[in-house]
Write a structure and sequence with these properties.
Distance between the termini: 29 Å
Order of helices and strands: HHHHHH
Number of strands: 0
Largest sheet: none
Shape: extended
Number of helices: 6
Strand content: under 5%
Number of domains: 2
Helix content: 40-55%
Length: about 100
């Protein structure tokens, strides 16, 4: 069984939205991916949602971002890592994701 290769989170368009022009991370990423810069800069200049959304709709659509942001806070991830590593084959991982129900 092979481990998953490292993934640069910035390859996700939603993560790139947080990159700030003039920062080391921004310059480094777009040096390696100049083909994405123009589109990303445009998307970054736009509000997340356009149109007339009720507040409840906006909160519902963005609740997962708040949840994931909270999970990444330092006080949530500090501590000793688990001693036992759980390994899944890519096939089993795909099965788990595809059958996930809210």
């Amino acid at each position: 069984m092979t481990l998953f290769p490292k993934f640069d989170e910035r390859d996700n368009v939603f993560a790139r939205r947080a990159l700030k022009p003039g920062t080391k991370e921004y310059d480094e990423y777009y040096f390696r991916h100049p083909e994405l810069k123009e589109t990303d800069d445009h998307l970054r200049s736009q509000p997340y949602f356009t149109g007339n959304y009720a507040e409840a709709d906006y909160l519902m659509c963005n609740s997962h971002e708040v949840f994931l942001h909270e999970l990444g806070r330092p006080e949530m991830v500090s501590g000793t890592p688990a001693e036992k590593q759980v390994r899944l084959s890519p096939k089993r991982a795909a099965e788990k994701i595809k059958t996930y129900k809210n």
